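Protein folds are increasingly written down as discrete tokens. With that in mind, we are printing a sequence and the tokens encoding its fold.
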Amino acid sequence: MTRKENPITTVNQYIHGDITKLVETGFGVTTNKKSNTEVPNGRNASGRNWKVRAQKRASSLVTSNPQNAKSKTWERKANEKKLRLAIKEKTDEMKEERRQAAIAKKERRLENQKRRMENEFKVASRSAQVLGKNVDMKLKAMSKKQLRQIKKTRINTKTGTVEYVGAYTK
């Protein structure tokens, strides 16, 4: 904020006499500007000459600019509310689209996993050998490598398909 032209020359100069009469005469200083429009502040009581004092109350200021108006018109408020609601509706719509896309992606992933498991089960069941009566004797006779090759069937709870898993997996 720029300081107004102040006829006081020294920092803490004391003004003698009636200040209202001094204002009318312009302190004996001649300037190019109208002297009656500028009211000098005089000396601050605290001695802080750099403090800028308000010339008018904020409530008494005339606001010709509509942005500085004290209150908005009803039409403007209604328009802003419409705009806010439209923006909210659009953002909600976009959120819903993203949610639906995520759900579709998850379903597609589960379907692919189910199809992969079914295909794997079909391929494995073609070459699988079912152990019959003498399972315990056969298992005892097998080597470690052969035992590692043994698979058992299990139903996947997520996809609901039958799958082959290792004999010792949980």
Observations:
- The CA atoms of residues 124 and 164 lie 8 Å apart.
- The two ends are 77 Å apart (CA to CA).
